[in-house]
Amino acid sequence: MKPDWLDTQEYPFTSHYLALDAGNMHYIDEGEGPVIVMLHGTPSWSFLYRNLIKILSRNYRCIALDLIGYGLSDKPEDWNYKPRGHAANFEALMDHLQLKDITLVVHDFGAPIGFAYAIHHPENVKSIVMLNSWAWSLSKQQTFGKTSKYLVGPLGKFMHSKLNVSAKALVNELFVGEAELPETIRHHYVKALGNPEDRVHKLPCARELVGITKWYDELWRERKKIQNIPTLILWGGRDKLISQGDLQRWKAFFHECYVIQFEESGHFLQEENAEEVTSYISNFIKEEQLKRSVAQLEH
User: How deeply is 189 buried, as exposed, middle or buried, from its count of CB atoms within 10 A (0-12, 13-18, 19+)?
Assistant: First the structure.
């Protein structure tokens, strides 16, 4: 049953749930055709992709999940919320749906979770679309001092500094400087976290900040397994969380990489530039399909 705060005109999708040891994980599965799987970050949920899905589902099968603790998924008190667990849950969903030849769309914290799957199953991921993301720890960056071992990336640093503000204040600050976000839309991000007045340190989205540097380092060491997957990077140039230096690191990493920068946009391109993002994703998938068809004919 959908919560009463959810506008079903804005988010008009059928809900599905996968029962996991951690709880019930919510996902949507819309449209038919080549498969696009979308992973959100912290502290958003599949709602972030709603405008992309409304358009892309006309020609593609679009799947977007809510990680445990986020959106319409369960928020158990006794789960650790570390990314290794999120990655295992995502892999369980992929196995449940028996998905192959997917385009994997990732955003901030969703990137390492999605890349963990791609590293283990590169044969199932034919292309990647990345929006403002990272996939490494900050453990060796001493400028962050004694707390650095708890910070998994730029968003981790930001979240750590906001542990004593309310969930509502966190969402408001994350969207500061973005395109004007209507209060009715902002409301969906706040309500999906649970009690808007709870302090951030009580939220599931903050719990994964502790003790995960080792997992990030392990993931980064295996990164070459996905280095040859064709990748489209869509990057907001005014992101206050993730820098241009991170973009340069990704550009140097992927062997076949296309980069589109949105100079006047911030961290949430899915909200600010939904139509353009949708068009770039669709064109990228079509171009990759054409290249594969030509390569098959040549062989």
Answer: buried
| Claim: this prediction has a pTM higher than 0.85 | yes
Q: Quick check: 22 and 85 in contact, CB under 8 A?
A: yes
Strand, coil or helix: 227: coil
Nearest to 136 by CA among 40, 239, 45, 253: 253
d(CA 46, CA 2): 14
Integer angstrom CA distances of residue 247 from 133, 190, 233, 237, 250: 8, 28, 8, 10, 5
Radius of gyration of the chain (CA): 18
How far apart (Å, rounded) are the C-alpha atoms in residues 167 and 29?
28
Residue 197's Cβ-side half-sphere holds a number of Cα atoms within 13 Å equal to 0
Pull the structure tokens for residue 251. 């550009």
Strand 257-262 relative to strand 231-236, pairing? parallel
Given a contact cutoff of 8 angstroms between Cβ atoms, the answer to whether 106 and 130 are in contact is yes
| Token pair 């290794």: residue | 84
Q: In this structure, is the dihedral angle defined by the CA atoms of residues 131, 133, 112 and 3, taken in order, positive or negative?
A: negative
On whether the 15-298 domain is CATH 3.40.50.1820, my answer is yes
Helix and strand tally (H, E) in the chain? Answer: 11, 8
Distance, in Å, from the CA atom of 88 to the CA atom of 92, rounded to the nearest integer, reads 6
Question: What are residue 20's DSSP bridge partners?
Answer: 23
Domain range list for the chain: 15-298
Q: What is the mean pLDDT of each run of 10 residues along the chain (299 residues)?
A: 92 98 97 98 93 98 96 92 92 97 94 94 96 73 40 66 83 70 90 86 70 75 92 93 87 94 93 96 95 79
Determine contact, residues 128/118, Cβ cutoff 8 Å: yes
